[in-house]
Amino acid sequence: MDVLTQNFSLYGKGFLGTVQLTVYASLLALALGVLMAAFRVAPVASLRAFGTVWVTVLRNTPLTLLFFAVMLGLPRFGLVLPFTVFAVIALGCYTSAFICEAVRAGINTVPVGQGEAARSLGMTFDQTLSAVVLPQAFRTVIPPIGSTLIALAKNSAIAGSFSVTELLGTYKPLNELGYSIVWSFVWIAVGYLIITLAISAIFALLERRWGVPR
């Protein structure tokens, strides 16, 4: 317990850093993921192509490589931001590809007749998608989105290698102070467990409230 009690503020700072990365990157991933899913089912060919390229490139790019591209590439184009913001961008964009596919799968579960009925009433594609299709699709994609955001929380550990304050990175100063590396990682694992269980609990609540009975 000494490694925790004597370094509680260090663990707390890393824990809050991981929570912030998870929350902000999740919001970005959800926004981009839903947008890309809309692009992939849009009647405009150029939007479908853009959505397909976005998903294909990001799903097949190692996250570490994407971090390097964002951290080192964007400043070359004059975009200089705090490393935490760059980490949120990398995590959010990467995860959005998986959110997109989950949402698109949910859209495909909505009967075609629902969209046809909406269009017969004079609703546009945007109105049909936002008011008719997505609300129904949301009910079926709660579990996969929850799993994807849990993976995002664990993937945030990569940010520590890029000077971003997060939970895994606390082992470095603890190791320098001479604490047991094993117990340092035990408490780091407990911190990640708390975060992932919290996400699981939130999505379990959402599934009980709005999910499709199975």
From TrEMBL:
TM helices/strands, residue ranges: 21-41, 53-72, 79-99, 181-206
Cell membrane among keywords: yes
Primary location class: membrane
Name of one Pfam family that matches: BPD_transp_1
Domain ABC transmembrane type-1: 15-207
PROSITE patterns: ABC_TM1
Subcellular location: Cell membrane
CDD domains assigned to the protein according to its UniProt record, in alphabetical order: TM_PBP2
Family note: Belongs to the binding-protein-dependent transport system permease family. HisMQ subfamily.
Protein name as catalogued: Amino acid ABC transporter permease
Source organism (scientific name): Streptomyces rugosispiralis
